[in-house]
Amino acid sequence: MTTREEPPTAPFALVDQHCHGVARSPLTTRQFTAYLTESDSPAAPGTTFFDTQLGFALRRWCPPLLGLPAHCPPADYLARRAELGTAETLRLLLGATGITDFLVDTGLSDGLTTPEETAAAAGGRAHEIARLETLAERTADTAGTCRAFLRELPGAVREAARTAVGFKSVVAYRHGLDFDPARPAPEEVRRAADGWLATRKPGDRLHDPVLLRHLLWTAADTALPLQLHTGFGDPDLRLHRSDPLLLTDFVRAVAPTGCPLVLLHTYPYHRGAAYLAHAFPHVYTDVGLTLTHVGARAGAVLAETLELAPFGKLMFSTDAYGLPELYVTATRLYTHALTRLLDGWVREGAWTAGDARRVTEMISAGTAQRLYRLDPATG
Amino acid sequence: MTTREEPPTAPFALVDQHCHGVARSPLTTRQFTAYLTESDSPAAPGTTFFDTQLGFALRRWCPPLLGLPAHCPPADYLARRAELGTAETLRLLLGATGITDFLVDTGLSDGLTTPEETAAAAGGRAHEIARLETLAERTADTAGTCRAFLRELPGAVREAARTAVGFKSVVAYRHGLDFDPARPAPEEVRRAADGWLATRKPGDRLHDPVLLRHLLWTAADTALPLQLHTGFGDPDLRLHRSDPLLLTDFVRAVAPTGCPLVLLHTYPYHRGAAYLAHAFPHVYTDVGLTLTHVGARAGAVLAETLELAPFGKLMFSTDAYGLPELYVTATRLYTHALTRLLDGWVREGAWTAGDARRVTEMISAGTAQRLYRLDPATG
Amino acid sequence: MTTREEPPTAPFALVDQHCHGVARSPLTTRQFTAYLTESDSPAAPGTTFFDTQLGFALRRWCPPLLGLPAHCPPADYLARRAELGTAETLRLLLGATGITDFLVDTGLSDGLTTPEETAAAAGGRAHEIARLETLAERTADTAGTCRAFLRELPGAVREAARTAVGFKSVVAYRHGLDFDPARPAPEEVRRAADGWLATRKPGDRLHDPVLLRHLLWTAADTALPLQLHTGFGDPDLRLHRSDPLLLTDFVRAVAPTGCPLVLLHTYPYHRGAAYLAHAFPHVYTDVGLTLTHVGARAGAVLAETLELAPFGKLMFSTDAYGLPELYVTATRLYTHALTRLLDGWVREGAWTAGDARRVTEMISAGTAQRLYRLDPATG
């Protein structure tokens, strides 16, 4: 029913090391465009969220997958999407990504597809990334007392570690990355939990810096990879307090646990993140979310990341959330930008074609397969 | 009498949303070159301010407008300029910019052309941007007492708002952008004014952080656009304290007033400024001054800004000051760089030609016309 | 015996304004690869330090100088190197760099070639850069008492100034660049020296912030150029505390001494460093170490530096350390990137070919010859 103007999959396997579910229900135009921005407000007067690099990239890559010409007007695209329905749109878009493994952050789930549903639409496999703050908040919701909370939390983390392939923290949002790097003392944790639970209502978010650190250290003890939001995000954030370099002392302190740290997003501090991946064997980096938002500039940002980042320390992700379009846009931008960048270096004699292929495989899948202990996809 | 090797105007209308007057009198070589740098000292031994990206760009674009070959030696250019005289030079250079509207910061005016004179030389229209600190200093010069100063200041701001299309603050120079974001309490303002006026001599600059904040909040209450110097500038500045991200909490606090914030210059923090324009509907950004100084690199810096900035949130300006040459250089660099950048994206299929035209119009004129409520220029 | 696929020297003279000796003894593979990274740990599981921009650049430029094809496997290269022996490898590699003057930081010397040996291998001249912290530590090793230390230190600095062409400080490592900019009072220095020497064992490093400042000011008094490590380096460093902009107040304070400051490395803060070189006549900048590590991206980083840096304020260096390969890689990357960058600007009409030649000469040799008072090399 649709014409595809692109081959349906990337020319190489893709492990999406950080992503989210997509909306289960039909979306209004306003709901759709809200997923195109990190802003939590309507677009400024006289502007639309389609007039962004992400908006233009989406219009480039998605319409052909739904049988429309590239760059068609947003209204045509949204009409076509409504006509096809949510399930068919999901199938057509996700099926075109070539992602074999989805590492889904399950910290946000209301109204979203499950990891299994998301992966199934692409014929891929689902894996879970457990979000630490959500885990703590759920534990607090049910624990009742401070004592019960503190007793149950490590078990909840260990239990999550049995099924999840990694953890994620949004301490950047809840406090900033300029937190005290040291493992908090038990007495300090007890006092903080007392304070938090004394006034907490179910569903309240965790902002206490001592408990946030306690969570990070509890997760580190499992030695599963720990993903950290760094760099830009929604306006809850103070961006200059999300500079991954603020983690330097924590990076050092946590090294003896054997816990790998994965710096997510990182923009506009991606060069600093790449430095940490260069300087510390247990640090990895990622440009998910970033490539999606910078659109036509994806190659430039990828190139900056590939200045100091060892090639085996950068991993592909989409950070897609809410819209299957974001999976398509992220994978197309990444594939296109990386290919073009490395082809350029090969053409000028700086790299060999064989090295370019090896590095492409590392970033796209190999490093994530090793780090998260995934079985390589069987063709 | 002169040959123009370029069409006299940009291929699209230009609203210069932040600029200054130019020198009325003939300039010595040393006075001329002092306008080519943000430094307040003579050039280092063995160097000249012409050996910079700005110097090379000026030599590229200006000599042909005065009948000389592009890239002619500085001495030839300065001799020709002296021969033509200040008024004719002004007319030849400004007339070639294609700027239809000049939003002139009147905070610096000694020995400079008025907004009307500047605009007239280009056949354009003049608008005023009132500089807050200058306004406060003039009020202090005449008010005499603390009580009179505090009583007269809001009126002076409101009076300025009747004729100006926006305000500007140089709090980045006077304190840094890491100021307390909250509106200061009246008692706090009174104490600060007391302290300042007790020792102040006429002409003394305002550096008191409480009064600087009081000014910002007083301006915000008018809901006129408020321009803020951010990023690089002269050596008075501590550049790392001019990072626009330091304004994040002020951006949030001021939102309910309805006052749009315009981040000027922003380099090398232009990606962070673009993030604020992305995350907050009332934030706009600009790369005036920056494109002029980075010369052949204008396209690269513009491209970085267009990563996260929504296309309807970036505005053209020259920040030209002192020399009409800076108007020419800024407009040529901008026009050339933007055209080339967008043509590249169109050629590779990332953007359509129609979208490129729309975005060019937004950045060059449309957004400023809407934000500052200017009538569109009539052709 | 070897085929050279490249002309043996750069097409212009090169003064290497900051470098180190190379290993005198044969190296194991692990020792060799440790010099390819700023990390002090083994490579992460499944990765190798050859899979980096530096690794790929080395494989591009060095094998042909030892008679092997470009991009040959690392094992082949290391075998060939072992077969040739350390002295012959040194001669073949350094002889191909075209460096006429080596300004060698003698702060690290164990097992390394002397400045004279290093320069001799290339047919160049050796000059010394005296490392301040090493000088203070050696003085402390022999002085015995606090009184003797404080009495001998200024003499040791002045003595070094008789033979060295400049000083270097690693205060970025020992404390961070966010130090108090003021010259410490004598009493403050005495107390700090008392404290340090009371517990110090021979060989212990200097970390006391007062003594570090005292050293900087003592060196500034000689008016010799003072090189400062800024930006990235080994994991001892907190990168965000090595931002050269943190030096702004020190830059201002030290101006009256007439001491030029040279900001080394600077990445990823090279734009801020370029701003300081723009704003202050006594500040110079450098991208040694950086170009080496970013490999195929050398041109991009150089271009960013050449946005605000006046062309007479940027100097070439390799920061080569341990491996003669790093001299080759740094010079080839620099020569190649600069030529390509400037040729591009000439081709598009932004610069003239004559200006490009002049600027190349300034960055490559001229500015360093003037600043360090070197005789121009005689062809």
Summary?
Chains A, B, C: GO terms for molecular function: hydrolase activity. The structure is a homotrimer of 379-residue chains. With 379 residues, the first copy, chain A, is α/β, with parallel strands linked by helices.
Structure description:
The structure is a homotrimer of 379-residue chains. The first copy, chain A, is α/β, with parallel strands linked by helices and 379 residues long. The first copy, chain A, has a single domain (14-36, 47-378), classed as Metal-dependent hydrolases (TIM Barrel). The first copy, chain A, contains 16 helices and eight strands. Chain A has helices at residues 29-34, 53-61, 74-84, 86-94, 115-121, 132-143, 146-163, 171-174, 186-199, 209-220, 248-254, 270-279, 290-294, 298-308, 324-347, 353-371; strands at residues 14-19, 99-105, 125-131, 164-169, 226-230, 261-265, 283-286, 314-315. The first copy, chain A, has an eight-stranded parallel beta sheet. In chain A, strand 6 (261-265), helix 12 and strand 7 (283-286) form a beta-alpha-beta unit. The longest helix of chain A has 24 residues, at 324-347. Chain A is globular. Chain A starts with 13 loop residues before the first strand and ends in an 8-residue tail after the last helix. Chain A binds chain B through residues 37-39, 41-49, 51-53, 56-57, 60, 70-71, 232, 234-235, 238-240, 267-268, 293-297, 300-301, and chain B through 243, 245-246, 248-249, 252, 271-272, 275, 278-282, 303-304, 306-308, 310-313, 345, 348-352, 355, 358-359, 362, 367, 370.
